[in-house]
Amino acid sequence: MPDQVTLTINTAFTKPRMVDAVRETQNTVDSVIAILGKYGNKKEDIKTSSVSANKDYQYIGNTTKFVGYQAQQTIDFVLHDLSKFTELTGKLLETKISGIGSISFAHSKADSILREADLIAYDDALKSAQKLASRADVKIGKLLFLSNDGSPSNESTGNRTGMALETFSKAYGGEGFKIAPEVLEFKRTIYTEFEIK
């Protein structure tokens, strides 16, 4: 089962003046960071993943119209106590965030679990090689080649909900939402070559 969750929190405002959009966005981000600081380590668990400021256009009727200047910031936060998830999201929904872009469950010991999966996969490969050799009435010799697939996708074991919550830059109260995390799957593929005696 996962023991941590990563939230991607979006904040964006469009104003007639760029300075006002930046100020409003920064004020909201500051309030979000103050909340997150109570649920995790500010240096390790809170990261600003993107900051942008651009002209904002909307398609109205048959034309694209300039509607103002937009400032946007995205924060990634890792919550290590899943029992606080509903409480945290409730606090975030009281701010003027634009939305929670993604929710990804993971395990803090994913690296060691993957290393264990490597060992189990190798044991399975060795047993398979021995059975095949026995059926062919030969014996396997020394190991000639060994590799795991090492693909980034196999190391990304988080369970992303695919859920996005949009608040349209309006603060509203209420309780946070609840999500039941699913069991995480850790997979490794091992490639082996053995000498045949």
UniProtKB/TrEMBL annotation:
The secretion signal range is none
PANTHER family, per the entry: PERIPLASMIC IMMUNOGENIC PROTEIN, SLR1258 PROTEIN
Q: What is this protein called?
A: SIMPL domain-containing protein
Q: Tell me what organism the protein belongs to.
A: Sphingobacterium ginsenosidimutans
